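Minutes, project check-in

Agenda point 3 was the complex the collaborators sent over. CS summarized: four entities, 292 residues total, and the question is how they sit relative to each other. Sequences were read into the notes so everyone works from the same version.
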Amino acid sequence: MTASQDISRLLRERGARVTPARLRVLALLRGAERGLSHHDVEKALDDGTPVDRVTLYRVLDWLVEQGLAHKVADENRVFRFSAATADGEPHLAHAHFVCDDCGKVFCLQDTPRTPPRLPAGFASTQVEFEVHGHCAACNVPAEAAR
Amino acid sequence: MTASQDISRLLRERGARVTPARLRVLALLRGAERGLSHHDVEKALDDGTPVDRVTLYRVLDWLVEQGLAHKVADENRVFRFSAATADGEPHLAHAHFVCDDCGKVFCLQDTPRTPPRLPAGFASTQVEFEVHGHCAACNVPAEAAR
DNA sequence: CTTGCTCTTGCAATCCGGTTGCAAATACAA
DNA sequence: TTGTATTTGCAACCGGATTGCAAGAGCAAG
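CS then shared the predicted structure for the full assembly.
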């Protein structure tokens, strides 16, 4: 069974209409390594039939409404969408490396999943672990300059 | 000594110009229970001499730059500002707790600093550890609702 | 297959928080 | 008091997100 058929069935099961936009967007989110912005999704889909900007916003919000995706504002105040896991929970430990030169974001695989110790009464829903610095590509010139 | 004189001295100590806008905004942030949006601050200051929209943005960003305030995008993708802890200085290596309900930012003191493992060639300059969730004050109603 | 209803899409206009360029005002050191 | 770099105010602008509405498409019924 293809991923598309899989998703198609998933949508149909909840009495929703199966449209190309929904299939393509959800498939994309499911295959993504990290949260995708509206712009990321638009770019990723523009090789085939392009999807209208507004439609894309609506599809993304619809997925969130259906519990199939999560919507989070990132540090630059743009929304990022990620596919929900089977149980509907967002993944808890999130480690990123942000290059301050080129702005690229890398996912760190070896997440040191440090359980945060919180004051009494506090509850955590998401942990962001973000390392800033210079990536391998941008770091070389800096080293040479020393 | 008044709070204003206190802040005035604080600014002067770091070689910064003391202006009414800076004094008023920082005093406001320090007295705030939760993170304030640009709009919140503007509204809170409009009884006296109104502060220009743009000036306000610039003052807020300047405070962040100086390490006197924190800036976080809330779940509705608007920035919220809160005063840094008294010493103001070291938010390089410690963790923050961001309450997704009230927007307040807490500094977590007891962070076990796990050195991040980076791919070869990568260099880190700053590590941000941000825990999202509900603070003690906001968590109570949620508990009661169960 | 065709019909008909409803949901979805596309387009244009709009909203809104935030930013930029530049000239006028002002803090503060000399 | 004066000189100068910093800060402020204004207007224009940016870009992500939203809204209104007419045209198009999914899908169940016949």
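Noted in discussion: The domain at 3-145 of chain B is CATH 1.10.10.10 (Arc Repressor Mutant, subunit A).
Follow-up: revisit at the next meeting once the mutant set is ready.
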